[in-house]
Write a structure and sequence with these properties.
Layout (H helix, E strand, L loop, with lengths): L1 H15 L12 H6 L16 H12 L1 H11 L7 H7 L11 H12 L3 H4 L2 E2 L5 E2 L3 E8 L2 E8 L3 H22 L3 H4 L1 H14 L3 H14 L6 E2 L12 E5 L4 E2 L3 H6 L4 H19 L2 E2 L7 E4 L7 E4 L5 E2 L3 H15 L3 H11 L8 H12 L12 H14 L9 H17 L5 H16 L2 H20 L1 H11 L6 H34 L1
Helix pairs in contact: 1-8, 3-4, 3-5, 4-5, 8-10, 13-18, 13-19, 14-15, 14-19, 15-16, 16-17, 20-22, 21-22
Length: 510
């Protein structure tokens, strides 16, 4: 019943903002309009606002989860009409704020002290306001900082919409035959983990620390310092970043920033985070990315907002890297085989047919700059191929796919002539050298060598224990089987250890 009430509220908000005016192609529009007779508040509506403003207003009124959706959509301005794109971009850091006094009270309650006693200065007017939190400028011990504070009651609001998403997903799961492939319940479950992790600012602070360590002394990415003494679950204090927002192309040009190099670095940062560190910033919309103007010819990215971070399992990471590598080499047969091996398509899939379908989608865009690629058409064709071969949605990869779309959207805005293929190819050549060579295999085996050595040294003691237990006739058959298994396991480890030793000798003598 709660979900039905929420759906009615969503309907009222959508209709109050006259979005039905923009749904001319919707088959059942007449049904949506006729339902207005049951809601007197919708009999007379204000239609004076422009379409983009009405859509932005709708996302804000619907709540934080819908604002997140609007943020994701806003990163793909190439797929949106200009008036809508212009307004949705404001959802990145210009959502309607809550009163500064409320923020001040929440901060004081969290840190157990008066704001004026902790900070040299504290600005009640928010510096930026987003879907789940807003940020206030302050000074701490003479240093410029920002104080991030969660919106009051945000957890309860999000929980309501998560319940609604599960409700809708269950209906889809029951009545839509494509649901087995698209896995709506699993996707909602993954999103629930992500969104609630974002509500823990201590976790966000630890994410920032790890990302900072990963890029220590890097000329690619800068991560601000965290002030742990004043960081709580709903309050985060960190160094303030002074840079150019990445969406401000005019200012980047004014500061003579090397845009081409900046776009290339963005691609390299993404692949480094995913395939080298296995820890990536998964909310890379323009409101969270700034550019340092200290070295215009070799610009550095500055990231903020570390609430949504992603990582992959070792197998997903490997399959994705091999897929990218095969794609850049135009080895579509290998791409098809990897999809089958990973279980992303059925084992009975004909590799040759799948290869031809992938080639038909990918070849037309290969080696073209971003500005010549219609990703709208590309996505439609990919969805068609997915349906044809019963390709399963991988919920654990949804966050990465969203991030990839964000990064590609940033690249298109920054430098439409970017050659993605030329930029990414050297990275995957290096990845192959680091992860698929003999030396990389030695490193992996070296990590496991203590376990091998330990099992080898314990081998006589294990045999002695088995011998003692064999005196019990009732357990004879079971223990004989156990003895055989242990021998095989330890023999395998002994062989692996010998191979490791020989490979190290070979590597040393080369």
């Amino acid at each position: 019943m709660i979900q039905i009430i929420r759906l009615i509220k969503i309907y009222i908000i959508i209709m109050r903002n006259s979005l039905d005016k923009d749904l001319f192609d919707f088959k059942y529009l007449w049904l949506i309009k006729i339902l207005r007779i049951f809601v007197p508040a919708l009999w007379i509506r204000n239609n004076s606002l422009e379409r983009g403003v009405r859509i932005k207003k709708t996302f804000e009124e619907l709540g934080p989860i819908f604002v997140k959706l609007g943020q994701a959509i806003s990163t793909r301005k190439d797929l949106l009409p200009n008036d809508i794109a212009k307004e949705l971009v404001k959802l990145q850091d210009d959502v309607t704020p809550f009163p500064g006094e409320e923020a001040k009270e929440a901060i004081e309650l969290a840190i157990g002290n008066n704001v004026n006693d902790v900070f040299d200065e504290f600005d009640l007017a928010p510096l930026a306001s987003a879907s789940v939190a807003q940020v206030h400028a302050a000074k701490l011990d003479g240093k410029d900082v920002v104080v991030k504070v969660l919106r009051p009651g945000i957890r309860r609001l999000i929980q309501k919409d998560i319940h609604l998403m599960y409700f809708i997903a269950k209906i889809i799961n029951k009545f839509w035959k494509e649901s087995k492939r698209l896995k709506p319940l699993e996707i909602v479950n993954e999103y629930e983990k992500v969104i609630f992790a974002e509500l823990d600012l201590i976790r966000e602070a630890s994410n920032a620390n790890l990302l900072k360590r990963n890029f220590t002394n890097s000329t690619y990415l800068y991560v601000p310092e965290i002030y742990w003494e004043y960081t709580r679950q709903n309050v985060l204090v960190m160094e303030r970043i002074f840079g150019i927002q990445i969406s401000n192309i005019a200012e980047l040009n004014k500061q003579n920033i090397n845009i081409k190099r900046l776009a290339e670095k963005g691609v390299e940062i993404f692949f480094t985070q995913v395939f080298q560190h296995n820890f990536f910033h998964a909310d890379m919309h323009p409101g969270n990315i700034f550019v340092s103007y200290e070295n215009p010819e070799d610009p550095k990215y500055c990231a903020v907002d570390f609430g949504i971070m992603g990582s992959l399992s070792e197998s997903d990471q490997r399959y994705l890297a091999l897929n990218f590598q095969a794609f850049f080499q135009r080895d579509y047969k290998r791409v098809a085989e990897l999809h089958v091996d990973s279980g992303w398509v059925g084992k009975d899939t004909r590799v040759d047919e799948f290869e031809n379908s992938i080639r038909s989608v990918c070849e037309p865009i290969f080696e073209k700059p971003l500005r010549e690629i219609s990703f709208g058409n590309l996505l439609l064709r990919l969805f068609s191929v997915a349906r044809q071969f019963n390709m399963n949605v991988q919920p654990q990869l949804v966050l990465l796919q969203k991030t990839l779309l964000n990064v590609e959207g940033l690249g298109r805005d920054l430098y439409p002539d970017l050659d993605l293929w030329v930029t990414a190819k050297p990275f995957f050549e290096k990845w192959t050298k680091d992860n698929r060579s003999i030396s990389s295999l030695i490193k992996k085996l070296s990590k496991s060598s203590p376990k091998f050595i330990n099992e080898i040294t314990e081998f006589p003691e294990t045999l002695s224990m088995i011998k003692d237990k064999l005196n019990n006739d009732s357990q004879q058959k079971e223990l004989e089987s156990l003895k055989s298994k242990i021998k095989r396991s330890q023999l395998k480890n002994m062989i692996l250890f010998i191979i490791l030793f020989l490979m190290i000798l070979i590597e040393i003598t080369q």
